[in-house]
Design brief:
four-stranded antiparallel beta sheet
């Protein structure tokens, strides 16, 4: 099953968290459709910025959109003009005047370990008619040099203009799809060429994920008050107190 399902959904709650965080009763379907259209719009508008993930949070009368990108300066623009224009477009197309909107932009620390960024790079190179095998090898080398433990790239379609479509993949390192604690980033995309559409899929294995709460040591930690009892000074006092008791018991035995 690990090879059939989306790796992010398979690890939800372990190394992944929901990218839409809100609760709705009767408006659930409308909010879900709105989230999908907002993501499509942002991925299309911010294609050159290298978007890694888009998270949407909702509260009463307010919506917050958190965008992680490899090139945040492309989104923000000069003196924040770019992000203000983006807010106006989102407000006009999807939200209206009643809903309050806030957009937060963060930078991806290591873009080469982001599956979405790698997919976008492969798409751009294939659309420039660069040989797909060279593109795959270059991106695999880039991901492994960034510190990944494994990567798999798959492309499918009319590769190099062939009449019969096929799929090819390259794998380097290990990509344990059935290990739930394995932190795997997954993304897919499409490259439009003169011969048709070429699908792109990328899996990046970053290592095993362990919750910090579960990694606590089993040895009990003494509180500060009890730890003071075991200082050098108190040990000397305890030894002095116990010596008379031991001598008294010995003297009692000798008398008998």
């Amino acid at each position: 099953m690990g090879k059939k399902v989306n790796p992010r959904i398979f690890r939800m709650g372990q190394s992944e968290r929901w990218r839409s965080r809100w609760y709705a009763g009767r408006d659930f379907a409308a909010f879900l459709q709105q989230d999908v259209t907002i993501r499509r719009f942002l991925n299309r508008e911010l294609r050159e910025a290298g978007v890694d993930r888009i998270e949407i949070e909702r509260s009463r009368g307010e919506i917050t959109i958190n965008v992680s990108a490899a090139k945040p300066g492309f989104i923000i623009g000069r003196a924040g003009s770019g992000i203000e224009d983006l807010k106006k477009k989102l407000q006009a197309k999807f939200l209206g005047k009643k809903m309050k909107l806030s957009v937060n932009i963060t930078e991806v620390s290591v873009p080469s370990l982001s599956a979405s960024v790698i997919v976008e790079a492969i798409r751009a190179d294939i659309e420039k008619r660069i040989p797909f095998r060279r593109v795959m090898k270059q991106n695999i080398d880039k991901v492994m040099k960034a510190g990944a433990k494994g990567v798999k790239i798959m492309v499918g379609g009319r590769l190099n203009g062939a009449e019969i479509s096929r799929s090819e993949k390259l794998v380097q390192g290990s990509v344990p799809l059935q290990t739930i604690r394995a932190e795997i980033d997954y993304s897919r995309g499409v490259a439009n060429t003169v011969y048709g559409v070429i699908g792109i899929k990328v899996w990046i294995y970053k290592g095993e994920y362990f919750d910090k709460k579960k990694e606590k040591s089993t040895a009990p930690k003494l509180p500060m008050k009890t730890a003071k009892l075991f200082s050098k000074d108190t040990l000397d006092v305890q030894i002095v107190e116990t010596k008379p008791r031991r001598t008294s018991t010995r003297s009692a035995k000798t008398k008998k």
